[in-house]
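Last lecture ended with a question: if I hand you only a sequence, what can you say about the shape of the protein? Today we answer it with a concrete record. The protein is Beta-phosphoglucomutase. Below, first the input exactly as provided, then the predicted structure, then a couple of comments.
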Amino acid sequence: MLGVPDHIRAFLFDLDGVLTQTAKVHAAAWKDMFDTFLRAEAARDGEEFVPFDLVVDYDTYVDGRPRLDGTREFLASRGIDLPEGSAQDPPGSRTVNGLSSAKNDTVLRMIREQGVQPYPGSVEYLHRLRVLGLPRAVVSSSANCRDVLRAAGIDGLFEVVVDGLVARRDHLAGKPAPDTYLAAAKALGTPPEHAAVFEDALAGVASGRAGGFGTVVGLDRTGQADELRAHGADIVVADLADLIPGEPE
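The predicted structure:
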């Protein structure tokens, strides 16, 4: 049924890169923030500036993770140890919170300027699920998830939203831990083995696998099908339209 096994009764979707065309916006915002920081660090220490890589660094360290975790993971990969700071740190401060705030300011500005477009295949898939009466949830690390859903015009297609704000409120560990997906399945009244996870991020796919979900679907938007499978995807497709019966593959 719709490209997943018949025992699947609930459908849990990541946001950026799965439902909306905002993954590239996030990647660009991470690069803008980190390159500004790394350039200043290199000038200060008299070392060579090595920019943030939009493919390797983004996929490995930040994609799918909560914002603060992504900042920590990338800094650790470069051997940079910064103080944690606090949420009140001005954007761009030399702290984990300050850099994370700068990234968030950039992505919000880019979304305001560029708008938010959903993937047509994802919208069609969601409408098919709604017609069949199958429950749907969004599970995103982003604190801006609901704003993005509204901007894309798809906020009315989900019964449950577990985003960065919910994770912070309920003390849920971020992806690749399975906690946020497990919380969404529980809210829909469905055990994990009867729920499907839809992810484009390696950390998100790992989250679905760690949670014992019935099916993990990887969305290959950037040519990383092998990596998605290696991290636990049972099915890999280029677009959710590929799962709709009768649609061309």
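Comments.
1. The chain has a mean pLDDT of 94.
2. The first strand starts at residue 10 and ends at 13.
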